[in-house]
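Course exercise 7: structure representation. Students receive a sequence record and must write out the corresponding structure in token form. The form below is the worked example handed out in class, using MbtH family protein (67 residues). Read each field label carefully; the graders check that inputs and outputs are placed in the correct fields and that the protein name is recorded exactly as given.

STUDENT ID: A-19
EXERCISE PROTEIN: MbtH family protein
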Amino acid sequence: MRSEMSTRNDVDTRTYTVLRNEKGEHSLWLENKDVPLGWERLDFTGTVEECSAYVDKVWYVGPKRKG
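STUDENT ANSWER:
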């Protein structure tokens, strides 16, 4: 049986989803895997690159924003 990715040079064609925990931390997770306790699935799926770009866009690190 051959895995979907056999070497580091292969293109990752798997579908990922973005997870978030109660601390506001994000994680990329394979779409077909169960979500671990303490995490919720966000409404975004795509390639690892697309999900990473989404997290870069929505994740804020720093002092709490006013308003």
